Amino acid sequence: MKYCAEQRLAKKSLNINPIQRGGILTPEAKVALHEFEDGYSVCDYCEGRLDKINKPPIHEFLEEFSKFINVDIVRPTHGAREGKFIVIHSLCEEGDKIVVDGNAHYTTYVAAERNKTDTIVVPHSGYPNYEIKVEKWKETLDNVLDKYDNVKLAILTHVDGNYGNLTDAKKIGKICRRKGIPLLLNCAYTMGRMPINAKKLKADFVVGSGHKSMAASGPIGILGLSEEWEDEILRKSKKYPNKEIELLGCTSRGAPIVTLMASFPHVKERVKNWDQEVKKTRYFVKEMEKIEGIKQLGIKPKMHDLVNFETPIFEKISKKHPKKGYFLYHELKKRNITGVKPGYTKTLKCSVYRMDKEQIDYIINSFREIVDAGIGI
Ligand SMILES: Cc1ncc(COP(=O)(O)O)c(C=O)c1O
């Protein structure tokens, strides 16, 4: 069986897929990955539960991590989606209502559905900004609270995976708190990229994704919570009083958590450079928009590295090109740029997170060249 290893190990490409840019391993994590490659590799010195293990120093890491995002308690999960599922499962009964934003990731809906709960959506502002407005959130929440007495939770996407829009979590957090509705902030695209302060944002729960934004191989996530929710979320098994039911005792039992730990010193440092990343993204957008037929979607100016461009020019070229819609993928591949969806030309989701100026200029020039050549067909 082939595992595409050849492709992955081949000359490293410039990957512009936003979902992958934040999960690139540090050299330290690569070493850790091999050191802990065997199953249950973190369990040599089991202390009865994953978060209590001192060798490797998981316990100390989690304490440090809780300071990093300013929450009282942190637990590792297998991903952001598992964190959302755990919170919904703990707080909600069948048929309960959850208020979510119109840019919520599919995993929010799936986690709600698996818990047999209903989602009520705060609509975004539509094309071209797709903004989640604070007033709309308040209006929707008020209406929902008037209508139902079983609204148990709100889930806000801090930065969404389609447009890279940063929501005003603090204002929305305040509204939820005033109304007595706990807020879960989905930080899959922010925790590990930009600074997160859960208390300041008035979030009762935060979830993060190691493989998306914390230089970890994954699957690995973080669930942070304030202590008032400890008894509910981290309730213990009757038969095994040391084991937390929602975490099924222990979650990540090997390499994924160790890669997260190994990259943590780097991640702590890199969030301090977030302003630089935003600046680079704005430069990238400005230059890309100079190409006719490329226009940024989502809120302007950018506050996050995930960019979605609408690209009618690529659509136009695809109609005449012998490779049809696949031309863009192939042209980029020739230039050693990867991470675009093969066959798709309507819009372009990309990120230059943690790239240097030379790499960013190379990407911009590549798109310019591809358009110029395409127009001539
Ligand atoms: C906004 C958002 N939330 C959650 C997820 C899922 O994260 P995970 O794989 O850690 O469950 C994604 C993945 O693309 C996402 O974009």
Automatic annotation (TrEMBL):
It comes from the Archaea. Keywords: Protein biosynthesis, Pyridoxal phosphate, Transferase. Its EC number is 2.5.1.73. GO terms for molecular function: Sep-tRNA:Cys-tRNA synthase activity. Pyridoxal 5'-phosphate binds at A80, R81, N186, S209, G210, H211. It catalyses: O-phospho-L-seryl-tRNA(Cys) + hydrogen sulfide + H(+) = L-cysteinyl-tRNA(Cys) + phosphate. Its cofactor is pyridoxal 5'-phosphate. It holds the Pfam family SepSecS. GO terms for biological process: translation. The modification N6-(pyridoxal phosphate)lysine is found at K212. It is an enzyme of class 2 (transferase). Homodimer. Interacts with SepRS. Belongs to the SepCysS family. Converts O-phospho-L-seryl-tRNA(Cys) (Sep-tRNA(Cys)) to L-cysteinyl-tRNA(Cys) (Cys-tRNA(Cys)). This is O-phospho-L-seryl-tRNA:Cys-tRNA synthase. It comes from Methanothermus fervidus (strain ATCC 43054 / DSM 2088 / JCM 10308 / V24 S).
